[in-house]
Each structure stands twice: as structure tokens, then as C-alpha cells.
Design a protein that fits this description.
The complex is a heterodimer of chains A (524) and B (280). By secondary structure, chain A is α+β, with helices and mostly antiparallel strands. Chain A has four domains: 98 residues, 3-Layer(aba) Sandwich (Udp-n-acetylmuramoylalanyl-d-glutamate--2,6- Diaminopimelate Ligase, Chain: A, domain 1); 120 residues, Beta-Lactamase, CATH 3.30.450; 120 residues, Alpha-Beta Plaits, CATH 3.30.70; 91 residues, Arc Repressor Mutant, subunit A, CATH 1.10.10. Helices cover 49% and strands 17% of the residues of chain A. Chain A contains 20 helices and 17 strands. In chain A, the strands form four sheets. A five-stranded antiparallel sheet of chain A has the order 1-11-12-9-10, sandwiched between helices. The longest helix of chain A is centred in the N-terminal third of the chain and has 35 residues. Chain A is rod-shaped. With 280 residues, chain B is α/β, with parallel strands linked by helices. Chain B has one domain: Nitrilase/N-carbamoyl-D-aminoacid amidohydrolase (4-Layer Sandwich), CATH 3.60.110.10. Helices cover 26% and strands 28% of the residues of chain B. Chain B has eight helices and 15 strands. In chain B, strands 5-4-3-2-1-15 form a six-stranded mixed sheet. A five-stranded mixed sheet of chain B has the order 8-9-10-11-14, covered by helices on one side. A two-stranded antiparallel sheet of chain B has the order 6-7. In chain B, β2, α2 and β3 form a beta-alpha-beta unit. Chain B is globular and about 50 Å long. The chains are: A alpha+beta (524), B alpha/beta (280).
């Protein structure tokens, strides 16, 4: 497992400026006499050292305290002392005046200025032990707080993973700690999931192309990135966008988040599943109409769908496997999103160049789905849309068409690509199925068969359905129900008697046909 | 109005036999043409397995005459029917015992424009190419096709910046880099070298890699074919690392001019100072 950030996270530190501002330190009347431009350097530790070759004792990042007793009287040693600190990458030097020097020695000051090393003198006698105690305890507390936060986040995320929480829940947890938008992308910078306050996330997505190209560029502005990968492969990236706390804490959160996502994927998630969830969430929102289409445009673009100067073809596939649909799209080189909806329907939104023949390519896609054996899905299409704002209505139209085909066997009378005009009356009935007048009409027309009764024949309704669907073809109906023609005649007579109708009368037969379509539509 | 070239590359897995492999590529050409693609490049040694994972002379039989062999003829007919420029990376037999790793270029009217023979031949674990191919000396041809000026630089060639430059100097607008490369070996280079070449030479690059693990070895071909523009930006998304995929992208040639007007690499290069590079 690998989780990496652009730079290894340093230990929590105080800056030279922050230390000089501490109340107990101020009692020593500190004065910065050199390197005033470097006061934001982080101090990792405080160390008291009088030796002239102090550098060999340091690891870098120390604030070194000295009285200068071993340096007095020799400008060359004083200069070398500062250089030695600089070579060891010490953060600053603090000289207590009084014991060796009544005033800041000029050679030390000049050397410090040249090296850009903050040099501070304390004008009042000040016990160094007090300063080290104060600073070290603060540094330790900071380290402890970081470890504690790290553990808290890790525990929360691990708990979510072991309880089977979905990806979105993990991201929400990370966003809860970071208080900024959190974005998960694949390696192509396609946004797979986001978390955080909606409007802030939308702001980020609106500018996503530019942000994605700069990702990892400047952590100083609170853009913190963690790579996600394992088993020698990188899968994606997690980004905290505009984190407002200190960088170290932000990196810690990004790292913990990335670790959790690696675990989540290793325990069964896949990047493909993440991509699918992302498309599903987007297309579900498009279909629902709850969020205006315009507001969803940045999400669509960030999800990798080309949206500028495109023709959108809304499709809904019945009985299609979403994995296969995605593979066929790739095989044909057509950009699009695939998302499973409820009840065996899958939405596919194609995005084609304006000069391409959208109808022909949609047929091409549907025809290819039928090759290669296995199930033969039904592909319903709405008219192509050139405005993104019209896509929700288009997807709803395609879903409506797909639903209207639900009672039709795949091979019967359905073109490769089914459109609104192909579902005719069935489509209209489907649209009106929840209307109480239509429901009452169906009940009224079919009452005699639906109520049954003691002498009811449960086969009569299917026989009537077949008889009407075949255009009142008696021999075909008998054949499909595996009965003799005389037996069929008897059943048709029974139906006429139960319903009080004459099936040879066109209008009465048509009325029953519509009632049956409405009845069937309500039952699905 | 700038010129936009709709270009395509196709990555796929070894089907197990040469004829079905050819048919898969014929279908890909039809799919690309259905989308209005003007040019399509296949993967390296497109109709075979990547047999260089082993050293076995039985694979010599995959080599064909270019342009007089049956595969070039077959795709000439298809190119004419579909009106699409085709780049066919193949195993070429000039004469028995003289074999090359070659790409044939067919124009949109079916005419044969010429070929490029791979210059740099690797001989490393899983890529035993010196067993199969002589190095080509093709003088960096750039083909004037119906879809623009096109160069080809095959697989291992891409590690050598000199050829990229030579193709740029010869006027290439799009350079295709058909490849067969394995995850463990080159994944860290795949999205680095070709974008760098596109930037350095200020043209478009189409990179193609096959997918899957074949029966001849452990090489895990990781696909992820793509087009990259002269600013090193991928044009659309990078393809799948596992699945067969046709990548069709619109390449706006105005970008090439725009970048060359901004960066004058061709003006400022100093060939007189490069003599040591051509010293034997």
C-alpha cells in the first residue's frame, strides 16, 4: 500500500516568531538583530550549546541558545559559530547578553545577516531552562495533538470501512474534519466523488480543468493532494481543496483519507465501481430534476463527459448489464456516461460532436449491443439534444419509452433503437397509468374477468390479451396457448359473456385492448 | 476556420488467431469511420500476439510483404471503402531472412503511401526483438495523407528523442507511436515520454498500447492509449488499462501553430552544436 504526498510531512513546529511572542520569553526582552526576514522558519527543538563547533551536535531546525562565554574576544570564532549553525540548518540563534557580551557582537550579527540566520539577543538575564521548558512542552503538546487527531480520524474511517459504509460516507467523514471540499479523482482527473458543502464543491468543479492541471502544485494555498495506490499501481488522487488550517494538519487528513480509500478499494471496491457510482449519482440527479440542469454541468464536465458544442443522445437500456454497456462504448470510442437506474433499466448519455450523425451512431451503438450473444437488451432513445438544459427531459423521455416496452418481448416488433413513436398507444397509456380516470376505466372494462368468482377461469385474461395483441387472430391465439380452435372459441365466448361485450365489434375490442394495456402498466 | 483532424487509435487484446485479430481491426476501422474519423492507427504488430516475449522462429511466418502482401491489400480496399487513412503496424518480410518491424501507411483512397521501419530494436527481458527484426533505416518519412502530415515512431523508438525531432523537422503534424509495452517495465514512462516529445517537437502524438496478458509470457500490456497535444495536454481521456477501446479525438491544428508561434524551438535549435550526437 502506498500513500504519498508531494512532500513528507514535517513534525509539528512553532515558528521563530511564535516563540519570541510567548509571554515567558518576552520577559527576557528579546530583540531581533539579524535575519528578520526569516522569522517564520519552523523550530523543531530548542537546544542550549556553548561549544564553538556547535553545528556537529545539531540535526537541523533547532533554535540554539547561548551565553557566548566560549566565543568572547575572537571575531573569527564568532563568525565561524554562526556559519556552523547555518551549515547545520539551525532555525535561529538566541544570545543572552550579560555574561560574555554586554551588547550584540558585530561580527556575529554580520555573519548571521549574511546567512539569513535569525539572531536574537535577550537584553535581560533569563534562565534558559525556562525557555526550553516552555517551548519543548508546547512542541510536545502539538505533536501529541497531531497524533491524537491522526488516530481519531483513522479510527473513525476504519470503523466506517468495517461497517461496510459506501465511498461517499468516507469522503463525508474526511470533509467533516477538513471543513473544505474534498474531491476524489481517477488518474485522468475525472471526478469520481466529492464531499463538503455543496456550493463550495460546485465552485471547485466549475473551475475543475484548471485546478486539475495544477493539482499538487501549490500546497501553500491549501490545495493538498494525496495519491492513492497499491500493489505497485496508482489508482487515483484525493484532494483537499482550499484547506484553511495549517498545511501539516491538512496533509495528515489527506493521508489518512487516502489510506482509508486504499483499504476500501482493497476490500472489494474497484475504481470502475467508483466511476460507476459517480455517473449514477450524476444521472440520477439529472433525471430527478430536483437540481437545475445548469448547476449539474460542472459535475458532468468533471466526470469526464465532453459538454462543449456537443449533441447529447439520451438512452435508457432495458435488461442491459452496465459493465457491458461501458465496454461497448469504449469499443466504439463513443464518449458517454453509464448509470444503473432501478428496475433493470440503465441510463446511457452519449456526447457526440455536433457534426456527427447522432441518430446513426445511436443505432450503431444499439446494434453492437445485440451482437456477441447473451441477453438482447432493448435500447430506448429520446431525440438528440444540443442544449444541456434539455438533457433531463430527454432522459425522462427515454426512460418512459423503455418502460413502455416493458411488456413487449424483445424480439417482437421492436426496432434496434426504440423511440417514442415506436411505442405508440402503449407509450400513451404508460404515461397516463397513474391517472384515476384511467384506472377506473380499466377496472370497469375488465371487471368481469378481474373479479373472477366461483366459476372464474384464471386463463381467460391471458387469452384475451393474446387475442387482442394478435389482431384477433384466432388460429395464432390457439397455437400460442396450446389449445384447439374449438377450445379457444369456448373461451372467447366465456369472455364475451363475463364482460358483456361483442369481441367482433372493433370499438369494443379496442376499448378492452386499451383497458388491458392500462391494467398491465399499473401492475409493473 | 482552423483545420480539425478527427483521429483515432485502437487498442485491443490478442484474440488467439490471426484471422479473427484482423477482423477485430476491420470492425474497428468501420466503427472509427462511423464516427467520422479521418485517420486510424493500430497497435504494434497488430494482427499477432506480441511474440517477442519468446524467441521462436515459428513466428517468422507472421511476416508479410509490404505493400504486396495480402494484409496490406485487404486494408487498402477497406480504406478506400471507408475513406479513412490507415496506419498498419506489421511484421514485414523484405525477403526470407530479412525482417522488419514496420508500419505501412494507406491513404483514404486506398493508395499505398509508404512505410516506416522501426529504427531502435530492444533486446531485454520479455522484449527479445533483435531475434525477429533488423533495425530500419527509413530516413524519417512523413506521409502526406488526406488527414494531414503523419509520421510513425514505433514502440521502443520513443525512448530516443532524435527520431521524434527528425519527424518534426520533416513536417509531421501527428506522430503515431504504436506500442506493445508492459506494466512492470514502462508504466512510469508511458505518460511522460510522448507528452514530452509532443512539447519538444510541437505536434500531436497518438500513443497506442495493446491490452491484456497473452499466452506467450507474463507481460501485462496496459493499454491507456491516448492523444496528447503540443502543450502536453491529453486530448480527452486516456483509454482503459484493461479493455479493448477505440479512441476518437478531434485534434485542432490551430493549436500546433499557436504553440509554435509562442515557442520558437525550430528557429532556435542549434544543429551545428550537435555534431557529437551523430559521431559514431
Amino acid at each position: 500500500m502506498t500513500v504519498t504526498t508531494a512532500v513528507p510531512a514535517p513534525e509539528p513546529a512553532l515558528s521563530v516568531r511564535q516563540i519570541l511572542a510567548l509571554e515567558r520569553v518576552a520577559a527576557g526582552e528579546p530583540e531581533v538583530v539579524a535575519g528578520a526576514g526569516q522569522l517564520d522558519r519552523p523550530v523543531r527543538w530548542v537546544h542550549v550549546a556553548e561549544a564553538a563547533d556547535v553545528g556537529v551536535m545539531l540535526n537541523g531546525g533547532e533554535m540554539v541558545l547561548t551565553t557566548g562565554v566560549l566565543l568572547a574576544g575572537d571575531a573569527r570564532i564568532q563568525t565561524e559559530y554562526i556559519r556552523s549553525l547555518d551549515r547545520a540548518e539551525a532555525a535561529a540563534v538566541v544570545l543572552g547578553l550579560g555574561r560574555a557580551f554586554p551588547a550584540p557582537p558585530e561580527s556575529m550579527r554580520r555573519a548571521a545577516e549574511r546567512c539569513g540566520m535569525p539572531m536574537v539577543v535577550l537584553h535581560r538575564p533569563f534562565p534558559f531552562a525556562e525557555l526550553t521548558e516552555e517551548v519543548q512542552s508546547r512542541l510536545v503538546r502539538r505533536k501529541f495533538a497531531a497524533v491524537s487527531l491522526s488516530e481519531a480520524v483513522r479510527t473513525a474511517l476504519t470503523g466506517l470501512i468495517t461497517s461496510g459504509a459506501p465511498l461517499q460516507r468516507l469522503l463525508d467523514e474526511i470533509a467533516g474534519h477538513s471543513a473544505c471540499p474534498v474531491v476524489l479523482t481517477n488518474l485522468a482527473h475525472r471526478v469520481l466523488a466529492t464531499a463538503g458543502e455543496r456550493s463550495a464543491v460546485d465552485d471547485v468543479l466549475r473551475d475543475w480543468e484548471r485546478i486539475a492541471r495544477q493539482a499538487g502544485g501549490n500546497e501553500g494555498d491549501g490545495w493538498i493532494r494525496a495519491d492513492i495506490g497499491g500493489r505497485g499501481e496508482q489508482w487515483g488522487r484525493l484532494m483537499l481543496c482550499g484547506y484553511r488550517g495549517d498545511i501539516e494538519t491538512g496533509r495528515l487528513l489527506a493521508d489518512r483519507g487516502a489510506e482509508a480509500l486504499v483499504l476500501h478499494r482493497l476490500l472489494g471496491g474497484t475504481v470502475a465501481a467508483w466511476e460507476e457510482q459517480s455517473a449514477q449519482s450524476l444521472l440520477t440527479d439529472v433525471l430527478s430534476g430536483v437540481v437545475p440542469a445548469r448547476q449539474l454541468l460542472p459535475r458532468a464536465r468533471a466526470a469526464g463527459l465532453p459538454v462543449n458544442r456537443r449533441t447529447f443522445v439520451p438512452l435508457v437500456v432495458r435488461d442491459g448489464d452496465s459493465g457491458r454497456l461501458g465496454r461497448v462504448l469504449r469499443l466504439l470510442g463513443m464518449p458517454g456516461l453509464v448509470a444503473e437506474l432501478a428496475d433493470g433499466f440503465t441510463a446511457v448519455l452519449l456526447s457526440l460532436a455536433r457534426d456527427q450523425d447522432a441518430d446513426a451512431l445511436a443505432v450503431h451503438f444499439a446494434a453492437r449491443l445485440r451482437t456477441g450473444g447473451g441477453s438482447r437488451p432493448v435500447v430506448a432513445a429520446a431525440a438528440p439534444r444540443t442544449a444541456w438544459e434539455d438533457v433531463p427531459a430527454g432522459l425522462r423521455e427515454a426512460l418512459h419509452v423503455a418502460e413502455a416496452t416493458a411488456d413487449t418481448p424483445v424480439d417482437q416488433d421492436l426496432p434496434v433503437l426504440v423511440r417514442l413513436r415506436d411505442v405508440r398507444l402503449r407509450g400513451l397509456v404508460r404515461l397516463l397509468r397513474d391517472d384515476p380516470h384511467v384506472q377506473a376505466f380499466a377496472e370497469r372494462e375488465l371487471d368481469g374477468l378481474l373479479c373472477g368468482g366461483g366459476d372464474g377461469d384464471p386463463d381467460l385474461l391471458p387469452v384475451l390479451r393474446t387475442y387482442l395483441a394478435t389482431g384477433r387472430n384466432k388460429s395464432l391465439t390457439a397455437q400460442l396457448h396450446h389449445v384447439s380452435r374449438p377450445a379457444l372459441y369456448r373461451r372467447l365466448e366465456a369472455i364475451e359473456a363475463r364482460l358483456g361485450v361483442d369481441l367482433d365489434d372493433f370499438e369494443q375490442a379496442a376499448s378492452l385492448h386499451i383497458a388491458l394495456l392500462a391494467h398491465d402498466a399499473q401492475r409493473r | 476556420m482552423s483545420r480539425v483532424v478527427r483521429a483515432a487509435v485502437f487498442q485491443t487484446a490478442w484474440t488467439g488467431d490471426k484471422e479473427s485479430m484482423i477482423q477485430v481491426h476491420e470492425q474497428a476501422a468501420r466503427d472509427a469511420a462511423a464516427q467520422g474519423a479521418q485517420v486510424l492507427c493500430f497497435q504494434e504488430l497488430f494482427y499477432g500476439p506480441y511474440f517477442c516475449q519468446v524467441q521462436d522462429k515459428k513466428f517468422y511466418e507472421y511476416a508479410e510483404q509490404i505493400p504486396d502482401g495480402p494484409i496490406v491489400k485487404r486494408f487498402q480496399v477497406l480504406a478506400r471503402e471507408l475513406g479513412i487513412v490507415l496506419i498498419l503496424p506489421m511484421y514485414e518480410e523484405e525477403q526470407p531472412g530479412v525482417l522488419y518491424n514496420t508500419a505501412a501507411v494507406i491513404d483514404a483512397d486506398g493508395s499505398y503511401l509508404g512505410k516506416y521501419r522501426k529504427t531502435h530494436i530492444p533486446q531485454v527481458q520479455g522484449f527479445w526483438e533483435k531475434f525477429y527484426f533488423r533495425p530500419g533505416h527509413s530516413d524519417w518519412p512523413v506521409f502526406e495523407t488526406a488527414a494531414g502530415k503523419i509520421g510513425v515512431y514505433i514502440c521502443y523508438d520513443r525512448h530516443f528523442p532524435e527520431g521524434w525531432r527528425a519527424l518534426g523537422l520533416a513536417g509531421a503534424e501527428i506522430v503515431f507511436n504504436p506500442s506493445a509495452t508492459s506494466r512492470g517495465l514502462s508504466a512510469y514512462l508511458w505518460q511522460l515520454e510522448q507528452p514530452a516529445a509532443a512539447v519538444a517537437n510541437e505536434y500531436f502524438v497518438g500513443a497506442i498500447n495493446r491490452v491484456g496478458v497473452e499466452e506467450l509470457g507474463d507481460n501485462d500490456f496496459y493499454g491507456t492509449s491516448y492523444f496528447v497535444d503540443p502543450e502536453a495536454q491529453f486530448v480527452g481521456e486516456v483509454a482503459s488499462d484493461k479493455d479493448t477501446e477505440l479512441v476518437v479525438r478531434d485534434l485542432d491544428m490551430a493549436k500546433l501553430r499557436e504553440v509554435r508561434d509562442r515557442w520558437q524551438f525550430y528557429r532556435d535549435r542549434a544543429p551545428g552544436a550537435y555534431t557529437p550526437l551523430t559521431a559514431p
